């Protein structure tokens, strides 16, 4: 599978210690979606909600 630039960056730079958990989570999320799974995003807090809302828009 061809990976996009963000996935390529993460695979190259996020290999060790705690950052490896991000890679494990990303692969697990991708597998979950490939198997037809869904993801629900919940938001809490005024500023975090506003900032994430901008990202999701």
Coarse structural class = mainly alpha
Could you tell me the mean pLDDT?
81
Domain count, please report it: 1
The CA-CA distance between the termini, in Å, is 27 Å
Overall 3D geometry? Answer: extended
Largest sheet: none
- Overall helicity: 55-70%
Q: How many DSSP E strands?
A: 0
Secondary-structure element pattern, one letter each: HHH
Oligomer: single chain
What are the low-pLDDT stretches, counting only 5+ consecutive residues below 50? none
Strand content: under 5%
The number of helical elements comes to: 3
Radius of gyration: 14 Å
Account of the 3D structure:
The chain has 57 residues and is an all-alpha fold. It has one domain. It is built from three helices and no strands. The longest helix has 18 residues, at 17-34.
Write the topology of this structure.
Elements (H helix, E strand, L loop, with lengths): L4 H9 L3 H18 L11 H11 L1
State the gist of this model.
With 57 residues, the chain is an all-alpha fold. It has helices spanning 5-13, 17-34, 46-56.
Structure characteristics:
57 residues, mainly alpha, 3 helices, 67% helix, 0% strand
């Amino acid at each position: 599978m061809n990976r996009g630039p963000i996935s390529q960056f993460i695979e190259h730079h996020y290999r060790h210690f705690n950052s490896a958990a991000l890679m494990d989570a990303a692969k697990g999320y991708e597998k979950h979606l490939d198997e037809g799974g869904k993801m629900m995003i919940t938001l809490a807090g005024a500023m975090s909600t506003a900032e994430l809302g901008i990202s999701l828009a």
